[in-house]
Each structure stands twice: as structure tokens, then as C-alpha cells.
């Protein structure tokens, strides 16, 4: 049995996230159908994370087990042939049998894009949040700094998911930068709670609006209460940017 | 009577070019409908150029005459409200009565994007030509250099348009650059013949394939024959980037 690790990339605008579900098209379903056309099998496909509807991925990792002997390079070419234009397989390699796209994952990096101009950019539709008003990225970056470290992020998790155990995560990077009118929030951590990045962004936008000060982020984390944080920002500006593994062999 | 100059920006993926036509949706038609909803008039709208189906514009200029007293800033806001997401009005100002978006235009700059990687980029669908094979941008840039200057560009004009008079144009810039896997061809001129940029790109790709040498471009220009140049490259990678006017008052 071969264990394959594939890196894919997708524009999530048309998809209701990664995970297969009833009555909605998911990336996993479309990927599974393309895979079936290539190898004639429907193996259990492990994704590195759930992603919300309409969220994008510059890098998303998949692992799957198959007896099929197709060379990795040919699998990439064939999958790209059958996949729609908004999903691409970047590469594929064989890994040890115990590798699992989700359980072996050591961390991830997300980027959230904000288009900060009174007029929308037609080329960023579905790829950035459009924020009309002036936005001081240095001020937001100061607020983002409070996310860094090991904290209980209950305040930054959608309520429904609260019972799921350990809410502690270690954020290794949280930065707000500007390039022209595009403001980006980059955040890396060993793991993310449900809607964590989007609630972080919603909270940063409260800072932008002057409704919160940067140091309020510290208080909100300590409160361990979802109602203290800002609203959940829309999914369209969110990109899973990188997925980290240790010593993939 | 006020004469208004508007700069717009659009993702051309859904549109059959600027110009109104039967049985196909054009940017001009959609713009005219939005304008009618704002000012209740359908004035004659002058565009700075025809653009082909599926071509994009980072800057496209429009002029129109109206008796309506709506302030420019409010017109921008109202048009953006009624226009679809893939078209945006950047700004608007009043200009002298003799200004005409097409006849007053002194030059334009186009950019053609080529995604040069064996795997497509889902975020560049409809926004770049996907070119699989290796591509030496320095070699292509050398070829592009031969476009610069005042030449009869008959070889770089779709046949149908040949009878339309003076085929001489002055190219002031023609450069090929690479940023990672994205190769761009930037070309500026006082005017462009029908399909001129796309045929230039088709010719550059012949150079990339080793079927032509950079210095062949000189010979092709001198031949004044469409059949000597390369094929017309697809429209999706083409962006009208800038439009130049002299002393707009």
C-alpha cells in the first residue's frame, strides 16, 4: 500500500469548503471524482484541515492510501487534466505509511487580505474583504502582536466548537502589513480553532474602527469568552497559505 | 452641458469587450444601464478604445456629456452601487467640452501576463496565458526591443482591419520581465492596430519555442504581411493598463 502526500492549491470562491457534505459542492468531492477518473478507486482522502466555505488555499495538503502503481508525476498531470480550472495539484510524493495530512501537521499559516480603498478592486472580488475607511496598519499590527504566544483562544472560537477539548494554541506569527491599498494579516500557529482567524480579523477591524485599543486584545484573550471578541470576518479574504510538517519522509 | 471624464477598471472575463453589440454582454452596455439608473439619461458614451472580448482593463477612460448636475463624487459612488462587482468606477471629473476619450488619447499601455509553470495557478484563471514550457525572458525581451520605434505594423494587425488607413504606430516601450513564474510583456504606443498586442505576444512565443530568433522581429515588421508574424495570443492575459492624455483640463 502506498501512502501519497499531495499539495494542492485552490480558489475557494465556488466551494463550500474542503469537506464533503450533502447538497453543496466541496473541494474534497471534486478532487475525489477526478481521482476516481484517474485511478478508478475512491480511497479515504485525508485533508490537512477543514476549511470554511469560500476560503482559498495557496497550499492545502492531502494524504491518501492506494495500491495503484501510477507514478507520482503522471498522477499530478492526470489529476490536473480532470480537475476544474480553480483547483490545481502542485506536486505529489510517496511518504511513510504513518503520515496523515491532518494528524502529522505541525502548524499552518493563514493570510487574510483586506482591500483598503473607497472603490472596490474588480480583480480582488471574492479574494479580499473590501474595507472602505482609513485603516492604520501599524496600529493593527500592534494589536496583532498580542495574539503571539501560547494562549487559551476560547474568545476566538465559534461557540459550537467549544466543547471540543483543549483550546490552547501557540501563535508563532501575527503581523499586519500594507502594500499600497492591500492590507494583509498573516498568522501562523501550531493549530487553529474553528473560525479563529476570521474572529481575529473581526477583532482587528474593531481596533481599526476605534472601538477597541490594541491592548484590549490581551483582555479579550484572558476573558475566554466569544462575546468579548469582534465579529467573524467574511471568508472571502482568507487564504490557507502554508502547511508545516516535520521530517516528511 | 458638462463633459465628464471617468476612469473605470474591469475584469473582462464575463464581457465581450467594451463596445455594445447584439447578442453579447459588453462593458459599455452594463455601464450605460447603471448610468441610466443614476441620472435617468442615456448619453452617448465615448470609450478610449475598442477592447476585445475577455480583455481586462486596469484603467479605461470614458467621456460623456450630460446636463445632469450630480456632483462627480456622488456619481462615482452611485455608479459603483449599481455596477456589478467586476466593474468599478475609479474617479470622475469635469473636462473641457472638446475632450473626447478616444480622439484626445495620446497613447496607451498594455500588459500581457503569462503564467510560466507546468501547473496552472487557480488564482490566474482568465487573467494570464498558461505557458507550460521553459521560457527565457531575456531572449524574449531582446525580441520585444525590435518593436520600439515608429514602424508600419501591418504584420501585427488582423487582416480585416488592413484597409483602415495609416498602419504606422510609434511604440515607446516594449519590455518582457519575470517575477517568479509570472512573465509580463509591457508595451506602450501612441496607438494600437486591431489585435496588435496579441499578435506581438504570439510572435514572442514563437521566439520562446525557438521557431524564430529575436532579430526576426525586424524582418517581420519590414515584410508588412500578417502571415509572417506569429498567431494571435488568447485574450485572457491582456490588460489595458494605462491611458495617456495631454493636459486634460
From TrEMBL, chains A, B:
One of its GO terms (molecular function) is tRNA pseudouridine(38-40) synthase activity. The active site is at 52 (nucleophile). Its EC number is 5.4.99.12. It holds the Pfam family PseudoU_synth_1. Keywords: Isomerase, tRNA processing. It catalyses: uridine(38/39/40) in tRNA = pseudouridine(38/39/40) in tRNA. InterPro entries: PsdUridine_synth_cat_dom_sf, PsdUridine_synth_TruA, PsdUridine_synth_TruA_a/b_dom, PsdUridine_synth_TruA_C, TruA/RsuA/RluB/E/F_N. Residues 10-104, 143-246 form the Pseudouridine synthase I TruA alpha/beta domain. The keyword tRNA processing applies. It comes from the Bacteria. It is an enzyme of class 5 (isomerase). Substrate binds at residue 110. Belongs to the tRNA pseudouridine synthase TruA family. Formation of pseudouridine at positions 38, 39 and 40 in the anticodon stem and loop of transfer RNAs. Homodimer. This is tRNA pseudouridine synthase A. It comes from Caproiciproducens faecalis. The lineage of its organism: Bacteria, Bacillati, Bacillota, Clostridia, Eubacteriales.
Amino acid at each position: 500500500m502506498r501512502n501519497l502526500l499531495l499539495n494542492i492549491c485552490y480558489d475557494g470562491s465556488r466551494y463550500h469548503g474542503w469537506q464533503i457534505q450533502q447538497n453543496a459542492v466541496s473541494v474534497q468531492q471534486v478532487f475525489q471524482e477526478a481521482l476516481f477518473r484517474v485511478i478508478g478507486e475512491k480511497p479515504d482522502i485525508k485533508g490537512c484541515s477543514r476549511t470554511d466555505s469560500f476560503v482559498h488555499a495557496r497550499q492545502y495538503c492531502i494524504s491518501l492510501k492506494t495500491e495503484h502503481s501510477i507514478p507520482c508525476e503522471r498522477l499530478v498531470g492526470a489529476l490536473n487534466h480532470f480537475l476544474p480550472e480553480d483547483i490545481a495539484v502542485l506536486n505529489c510524493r510517496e511518504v511513510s505509511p504513518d503520515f496523515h495530512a491532518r494528524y502529522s501537521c505541525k502548524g499552518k499559516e493563514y493570510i487574510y487580505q483586506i482591500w483598503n480603498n473607497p472603490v472596490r478592486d474588480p480583480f480582488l472580488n471574492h479574494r479580499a474583504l473590501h474595507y472602505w475607511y482609513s485603516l492604520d496598519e501599524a496600529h493593527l499590527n500592534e494589536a496583532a502582536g498580542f495574539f503571539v504566544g501560547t494562549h487559551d483562544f476560547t474568545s476566538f472560537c465559534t461557540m459550537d466548537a467549544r466543547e471540543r477539548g483543549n483550546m490552547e494554541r501557540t501563535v508563532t506569527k501575527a503581523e499586519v502589513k500594507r502594500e499600497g491599498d492591500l492590507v494583509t494579516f498573516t498568522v501562523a500557529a501550531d493549530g487553529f480553532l474553528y473560525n479563529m482567524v476570521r474572529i481575529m480579523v473581526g477583532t482587528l477591524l474593531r481596533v481599526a474602527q476605534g472601538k477597541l485599543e490594541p491592548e484590549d486584545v490581551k483582555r479579550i484573550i484572558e476573558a475566554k469568552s466569544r462575546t468579548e471578541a469582534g465579529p467573524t470576518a467574511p471568508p472571502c479574504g482568507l487564504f490557507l497559505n502554508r502547511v508545516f510538517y516535520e521530517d516528511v519522509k
